[in-house]
């Protein structure tokens, strides 16, 4: 091999080495710049918040949104125990106020949607439920949310306003659990949010509750007080409360706050 070809070969090998080093550096930099934010969201928000999390990730390359979806009371307990979170979005104002009183969220607290209650029954409605009053029949198996959960507190308000007292077979810690028992046929009926019936996509049928007896829950959202990504968390809150968020929430059946 003559010297000129040897020089070319050496230069080529050096170039490959440099490219490999650059690729390695790029991969390292990419991994280092990946950021996560954790959003604590009430069970009834799973659908729209999943969509909004995808939108946020598209708008913020390198950012991953982790959703922790559960009953609002469980989420509040997790926050109080020091679970890492960046955004808190419960299903009612009293839960948010408790978080604020315990210094678990930072101001401002923004209201952005509301929800009402509905009776959910299996698609074939075996118990022939026609209204909320039918849930009080002794031969009807009813499941509701526990009173400490926002959907349970709302159910109690419906009972008080209608003058009808229920004797539930079980009290669940999240509205998703009520919906699951009705969809599986384990219960004849359950009291859930209107939006849960919509999101069930035919797995249950909704029986309306009269407006005069119904209860309204207002949804609010705030940055967690101990967020390690407060700026990004605030941007996520802005997405939820802005025009995009309002459109997504409306499509899911939520009303204005």
Question: Any overview of this molecule?
Answer:
With 257 residues, the protein is of the alpha/beta class. The protein has 9 helices and 9 strands. Strands 1, 2, 3, 4, 5, 6, 7, 8 and 9 form a 9-stranded mixed sheet that branches. Helix 3 (72-80) runs parallel beside helix 4 (93-101) and helix 8 crosses helix 9. It is elongated, with a radius of gyration of 25 Å. Mean pLDDT is 90; it is low at 1-31.
Q: Which keywords apply here?
A:
single chain; 257 residues; alpha/beta; 9 helices; 24% strand
The tally of beta strands, per DSSP, is 9
Query: Unreliable segments (pLDDT under 50, ≥5 consecutive)?
Result: 1-31
The SSE string, one letter per element, is: HEHEHEHEEHEHEHEEHH
Overall spatial form: elongated
Structural class by SSE content: alpha/beta
Count of alpha/pi helices: 9
Strand content: 15-25%
Helix share bin: 40-55%
Distance between the termini: 80 Å
What's the mean pLDDT score? 90
Structural Rg = 25 Å
Largest sheet: 9 strands, mixed
Describe the structure concisely:
44% of the residues lie in helices and 24% in strands. The chain has 257 residues and is an alpha/beta fold.
Task: Please describe the topology of this protein.
Elements: H1 3-33, E1 35-42, H2 46-59, E2 63-70, H3 72-80, E3 87-89, H4 93-101, E4 105-121, E5 142-145, H5 150-162, E6 170-172, H6 175-183, E7 189-193, H7 194-199, E8 205-208, E9 216-224, H8 230-241, H9 243-251
Parallel strand pairs: 1-2, 1-3, 5-6, 5-7
Antiparallel strand pairs: 3-9, 4-7, 4-8, 4-9
